[in-house]
Protein 1
Amino acid sequence: MFEQCPKRLWLSVHRRELAEHDDGAEARFATGHEVGAIACTLLPNGVMVEAEPDLAAALVTTRALLDNGLAQPIFEATLQHDGVLVRIDVLEPDGAGGWHMAEVKSSTKAKDYHVGDLATQLWVARNAGVPISSAAIRHVDSSFVLERDGDYDGLFADTDLMAQAEPIVAGRGDAVAAARATLAGAEPDTAPGAHCDAPFPCEFAGYCHAALPAGPEWPVSVLPHGGGKRWIEQGIVDLLAVDPAALSNAVHARVHRATVSGEVYHDVEGARAAMAGWAFPRTWLDFETIGFAVPRRIGTRPYQQVPFQFSAHVETADGGIMHREFLSLDGSDPRRACAEALVEMVPPTGAVIGYNASFEKGRILELAAAFPDLADALTAMAARVVDLLPVTRANWYHRDQRGSWSIKAVLPTIAAEMDYASLEVKDGGSAQEAYAEAIVAGCTPERRLALDTALRAYCGRDTEAMIVLARRLQLHDDVCGGEI
């Protein structure tokens, strides 16, 4: 925390009430707890150091285990040096009188910021007299496939980072002294910057940014794909101050022009040409999925996106529309039922349309691989998938999109009444949270029914929105109006 931002450390200790609520913290904690628990079960002879009744007791317990020559893994070994206390996820005897240290992470690879975490553990352990022979990040192996219920042997892989950590270990004492001095002083005068989001979004970012002067209404950061970075480096932060002649990127020029003029960029003929080959009946399709760090379904990998819901609006050539949908909240593996529903509900001919449709196509093909008896129908369905997103990106831009072509950014510019804000489930993340809540044993029937209703409303809104958007793209502005 101190190395990301000294002010963040100071605020976390002295002004904790300024922290913003983190909606995803509980889910991340649950994932981390589950991953850690699985890592422990894979070392069945390990000894857990409990944090109760307090951490002082955990320190005493750990010291006793180490001093008594324990030859078994230790979980949550608790050590302290120079006022810094750490709980090491796993210490494993190396067979030569030393210990292999492993920090368990739910990510699928070791990350740069993990090195600093490991260095702190190493610094404390060594100064506490514990001989560490190797140190690694024990992360989830993305190639693991669950073959038997409850058998997670092979779920983790170790990436040794001891060599990378050594230079940081050497400076840990100075860093601790600097952190202690920061905490003893006044609130640091640290300006907001890129560090506010790296490696983690800071919970005090709102407080810090509120102290800044108001920025321009249209900052250069609305230029997509990092297009504003060049101008910020030149000291230009207002998009309206950018010389249009200097914009060589056609999309950036289009965004700039629409922002300055207040006119929608709309290429009706381009949109019509792009969609002309989309055969009827057209199926507007959207999945909701969940990817568990620890796979729960036979044949799935860590974080594999398992579909538990879809919405399909089927449109005929005469303009008729029929809504079909699937949702599974009973806690069982939803894939077979989802695959069967797709084959039953999606017509065997015509375009299947998604928004960022590679996602939908990927899920269909995964279902085809999982269920060979349905593979022919599902593979043929995947071959008919087309994408509305690139059509929208090429043929529509309204300045209120602020550089984004996500459907939630585009929809308010064409149909403000279809706002997601009124829905209980508002985005993919909250859909996953709703599903996870609904499938636990403690969810009441009343609450599950409410979640069922909310999920159907959200997923159905996504496919309905695609139809509205596609129709708008093909109408001239003199029919709907083009001024912002």
Note: The chain has 18 helices and 13 strands.
Protein 2
Amino acid sequence: MEGILPLFKPKGMTSHDCVFRLRKILRMKRIGHTGTLDPDVTGVLPICLGRATKVAEYITDAGKSYEGDVTIGFSTTTEDASGEVVERKDVNAPITREQILAVLKSLTGEITQTPPMFSAVKVNGKRLYEYARQGIEVERPSRQVHIYSIELLDDRAVFTGENITFRFRVACSKGTYIRTLAVMIGSELGYPAHMSELVRIKSATLTLEDCLTFEEIEDRVEKETFTEVLRPMEAALSHLPKFQISDKVAEKVKNGAVLTIPDHLLDTKGPIAVETLGGVVLAIYEHHSRKPGLMKPVKVLRNDI
């Protein structure tokens, strides 16, 4: 059994919890998730089964989309609703729609984020949340992330109240902390803030509409129709540039041969999916670091066809 399972991650479970439960349901060990989702976050979590675990990192590296709620008026230790309140400041003046839209626009594009203390980022070989649980705050390395778009999903013209909550949709690069983005939105508006709710609506090409719940998976396993919902490995690689090859070249690819980069891919950066004329991806290649004009295999995915 191999392929990509679009799982709907429920609230209260870690990504590892989901893998553990699926190993029991499917009675197989070779299962991997494609990036950590916080326990409070629901939504799209692509799961790789069997040989498809080889391509998990390419789903992780692809863009993500989320819908969530920002609450303005108080911040928390974890930057989401599960943490303890750190700072309060009642919203003492109306906030207009134009103000919020201006802030969202200012946070679109390349931005710098500092990972929250309650996160899985490692500093000196130890995850930040381990320091945080001991009450220790350490210096965290900032990172550049890309916000492709942010939309305000609230049609109010004016927002009033001691605390204000509004919904938004964001498309972003890997490594983006939406919790931190919510805090940044509040800061730009002049108030402490946190992310009060979040659902991932898209990961790579997989959407909420594609996802199955654990109950639906168990039902399909019982009815022996589970494999019908699995996506091929190619579903994890559809966002990568493609190089189609003949059967003759395919034999070389299976043995890890270095190839000449085709003209249409000379200016690309990052991984390239090398596929048969039938659209079956055989290997992932990248530009050769020492031999201009050539590319070398990073991973050979199939050598049995």
Note: The chain is about 20% helix and 35% strand.
Protein 3
Amino acid sequence: MCVIILNCVTLGMYQPCSDEVCTTVRCQLLEGFDHFIFAFFAIEMLIKMVAMGVWGKDTYLAEAWNRLDCFIVVAG
């Protein structure tokens, strides 16, 4: 939950019109947080896939929320 809140805060702080070239400290810090958050969610997904299995009954992709989570991570 803390990483989700961190993601919401960093998305709220991002200014796409003024951050075309990421040279400010604020922009670089937000970019670092973005990489950390993506890695965190990707590792979480991989751990769940290893623990639960990927295909079949009662596996990671058998649950709709996990399929949505996987789509979001892959799209990111």
Note: The chain has a mean pLDDT of 86.
Protein 4
Amino acid sequence: MSFSEKILNWYVQNKRQLPWRNTTDPYKIWLSEIMLQQTRVAQGIPYYEKFVKKYPTVQDMAVASEQEILKLWQGLGYYSRARNMHHTARKVTEEMDGKFPQTYEGLIKLKGVGDYTASAIASISFGQLEPVVDGNVYRVLARYFGVDTPINSGPGIKYFKNLARELMPDENIRDYNQGLMEFGAIQCAPKKPYCLHCPLNDSCVALQKNLIASLPAKLKNNSIKKRYFNYLVPLDPKSNTRLHKREGKGIWQNLYEFPLIESPKELNINELKELMPKEAPFADLTEVIAFNADNIVHKLSHQHLYTRFWICRTSSEIADGITPAELEDYPVPVLIADFIKTLKISYF
């Protein structure tokens, strides 16, 4: 029995009942694949269901505002995915008559759609013979064939893509690609894979040579940047506050946050006051206190944010201030959302 036949047989017996498994609608397949980038399936399911309910078609998503999209996405992280998704929904609706391209070549031109996503949509929705290579597939192929070429290197990406293409069957590509990804997620798991009852265990190089723990290989990235965030949380006598929209190309683009002072090191209260703006809503401060004594360390993929929130009491009402109830309407990073929950318990 060939590699692909074993995967297909395993998939028939072991596939999970996921909400996007019973459709070939390219909109829903695209939506699920965008959401599952950098996201566990269990975390992604409720978001997928919320989006499908609110936006049943790509046209429904296209007419939504970006703020609405970001608010619904809040908590999934990697917010550029949501912005790109919204951009693509508008492009498909306005320039493609609401129809997704049916080929890999057409799909990969859409914003936010890379090699893997284009291959997944092309094969699952349209039955195109395109191999998919995600983290689960890398792991299965690296272990089964004993390949130690780093999967995050140029040569590694090219090698595994070619290998995946050689292995795929001429028929039933839809189930095979989903099966191979599912096999990596469940059977050939990152830690504690089920090798004893694996249908590939009689010819798996990593199992035979005791290389399970070391494959797949990755180039190490030690460039974790430390950043120190000081959020100024103005509160007037009515507990109104102020949020700003993040601009530029950095993290959390177009999300909202409290006024921010970023510093090269941790600041004490006197150092902070020297840097605080003198204009509204900080012109008539009555009190500045640290909400959290120790830094909250928020870890992103290539940077760690050491964050303190500072409560800044003002004696006069904040012009165009945001009420405690209105804070819920703004899309904010999880770091800010968690703080707002605690703030409401402590101050509102």
Note: The two ends are 66 Å apart (CA to CA).
